[in-house]
Task: structure prediction
Amino acid sequence: MKRLFLFLHLLLATIVAVGQNVQDDMPINLPELYSQIDEAIEQSHHFISQYEENILKTKQTLQQAASDDQRLMTLMELSQMYESFNGDSAQAYTDRAWQLARQAGYKEIEGECLARQAFLCTFLGSQTEALTLLSRVNPDSLDHEALYTYHRAYMTAYSNLAENTKLADMRHEFGELYKQSVNNLLSVAPEGSEMYLGYYEPVLLSEGKLAEALKNNDKRLNMTQPGTHQNAIVCYSRHTIYRMMGDMEKAKYWLCQSALDDVRCATLDQMSLITLAELLDAEGDTERANRYITFTWECNRRFSPHMRSWQIAPLLSAIEQSYQSKLDSKSRILFYWTVAVSVLMLIIAVILFYVNRQRKQMRMMKQELEQNNKELQTANHKLKLMNEWAKKSNEELWAVNKKLTEQ
Result:
């Protein structure tokens, strides 16, 4: 009975009531997905606060537990809740469950707690500790569910060791141990279950059976509920398949779906967003990549100070350097434009000064011309009067001459 209570939360993590239809022929609008991710990141504090409230309620349930069975179930539930939220807390609650199981004499649960602690160590980067813990577990004393955790821990440890070692012979040795662990895990996982399909998929990918891997992923996707962390995991695997197929548009679509689910689920182990930031940086979208990798860095700091730091730090540095170079380039262009505009404004100012000066000179010349015209008009008027007077004088003189002639 205690086994049923203890691992009920693990079963609920893999069994969902509502599936989803897989439609890969739908129109893909990546800019819209990026906008949704940006919006989710802006609201991430709200998602995190909601998740923390759920954790607080579970902690209150732990305080009110009346039996060891209830306390064990709640401790493991808290460990599960913290698994993608805070790695150190997940380990702390698993350790409390192990101590309680040991005090209560629950040998099977004690072994599974050690196996789970080892698994937590693997993705927190402590492979040596994980293998040490696993060596203390007697697999013959574990039930079906505990064996799954046990083999999964070995598989993850050997996978990480093979990936990170620089020695070719050690990489080969760890790779063989990884394959053996996968086979062991598949032997205890119910065929057709999410756990079986989830770890059978990498086997298909390693053998180059991409079409079969995609069909396998179809089954997994139909077993998950959109908006959950499990759905994010399946979408990330689907992105990997399409990426190996060379279909980057669909790969980015499913990667965005994975990142979106993780942010909305308050998952602080942001693997999808790290991968998306790396892709965007390679495509030249440095500003968005820098925003995403900065967010994942902050999430990692809350999740575990030492988790993924070795993985994120080089990428963060590279993206920040690329982003800074882009900013410097924009600054230089802006400086050149500022200089060009300043020179242009100076030229315009000189032209305006010259034009204004010419206008003033023309205004003065116009005024002088108007004054000269007025003086000319006055002179003309005087000349006209003098002409009229001379004409009149000539007429009088002509009249006098005529009279003299007649006499």
The two ends are 171 Å apart (CA to CA). The longest helix spans residues 309-406. Confidence is low (pLDDT under 50) at residues 1-19. The chain has 17 helices and no strands.
